[in-house]
Amino acid sequence: MYKLCYKILFVLSISLVMGASSYAQENEVSFEVKLSKEKLGINERLRVEFTMNKDGDNFNPPPFEGFKVVMGPSQSISSSWINGKRSFSKSYSYILVPTARGKFTIKQATIEISGDTFKTLPKTVEVTAAVDKPSDEKTVDDVADESLHLVAEVSKGNPYLNEAVTVVYKLYVSPSISVTNYRPLDNPKYNNFWSQDIPVTKHTAQNGTYQGKPYRFVILKRVVLYPQKFGSLEIEPLSLEIFVDVPTNRRDFFGGRIYTQTSKTVSAGRRTLNVKALPEAGKPVNFGGAVGDFDFSVTASKTQLNASESLQAKVEVSGKGNLKLFQLPEPELPSALEVYEPEFDENVRTNSSGMEGKVADNYTIVPTFRGKYPIPSISFSYFNPKTSKYVTLNSEEINIEVLEGPVGSSSDNSTVSSGNKQFVIPTGKQFHFIKLSPNLSKIGTNYFFGSNIFYIMLFAPLLLIPIAVFSFKKREAIASDVAGNKIKRANKLAKKYLSTAKKELGNKEAFYVALEKGLHNYLKAKLKIETSEFSKEKITAILTEKKVAIADTHGFIGLLKNCEMARYSPFSDVQMQNDYDLASEVISKLDKQL
């Protein structure tokens, strides 16, 4: 009996020990690192996998010194129940490429599981010289590496200051793989350049060669740059993530090759331009920064008119070059001509070789007195990068003749100032004769004094006095309303600059071109700034310096962005009307603050 009891107790104790051991094994946490190889060539890849048997939080990988992460972290989770027991596994995987030869340590990774922090053991990896990799041993990532190349082609490596440089980004793809999609990771900012993107409307694959091998290439991006500083300027790289289908050695049931999808980050690499300063030798005194090949003219809408009538004088530069990045010369006009602020007109298109078109200042001129007024010749200078020489163009002198109107105060003569010279020009007849025969007639029997007309004219001034007093007070009240006057002037200014855009409502392209011109012209007229400063960052900085409200600055920049987006996106008539109303409101607010 006692022996039987001892046997039962022994069996129970063994079962308890085994159960406890099994429970402890089930609840033991495992967190370890696995390497695809511990020795590899500098041209090979290393797969690092961190695995755990329980789910955790706040996973922190090591810094991977001596390696570059080309893919990862890729996360995978597996969970299953077998005979009532749960099996769980979670892993974080990285694909690394070595950056140098030597011995490197994969340091500890950490993770929190059930409130405790666990660490992996460090591992040592040796990187040797490049090894020969048989083609049949190449991985999908190896094939993608060899088959994708992003190249930035620069039209000129040593341009002059403000000379156009075209950058074309081409993606070369080997015929052995196919690209399914891509997304930009890092767009260059083009600091120290005036830049203009040339839209690529259609990505058409073309045949070409890369490093002597046949490839297909697609143009992804075009941009025209005008360097604003001389010296060594760096173009930031464009980086893309490319998703590709790579063929494997496996085949499906019908014998077709099986493809595997992977992604690869490609970069065009940094490019440096050595920008040459414009030569000082032979630089004209009136040189304003124009670089290119231009024509210059000054024209008038009419040369004969009466006083108080108006004419239009146009100062125009046309051709190819940095048309948006210099100011037009101003004409010297006689003091007897009333001249209004010029209206800037711009018709410039930017293609792959740079800006081309014309810019003009339109002056409204109103003569006050009768006479003849010469508009002297003015000069315009530019630098031609093809010949490396400065060119000066002179306009023709224009003579304006005012036929009818009041005579000038200087003894029936009109004085025209041109530099330090005075021209005295006779106007009209120089002598007037007095009539000797007055040809008078009798008044008759009806006397004016005592008539109805006499009394009406006598008392009419008395009736006009209260009207004049009321009118004077009304004008005084309007003049004292400073805020109201500012609003009226601002609204009038907004309508002036946006008049062309309003006419083009419903025509998307023409409307947004006119809207952008109106916004630019307003800033030029109001702040007297060069067109070369018309980047969004510089506009924001200038408006912030002028203490313009942040909301109004963002509104102005947002309108400029809408003008750019409208070239590539469908905008409705409602959106155009909203942008027009917003532009009027923004210009009004800016004008009150500036």
From TrEMBL:
The chain crosses the membrane at residues 447-470. The keyword Signal applies. It comes from the Bacteria. Residues 1-24 form the signal peptide. The keyword Transmembrane applies. Keywords: Membrane, Signal, Transmembrane, Transmembrane helix. Pfam families: BatD (PF13584). InterPro entries: BatD. PANTHER family: BATD, PROTEIN BATD-RELATED. This is BatD protein. It comes from Flagellimonas aquimarina.
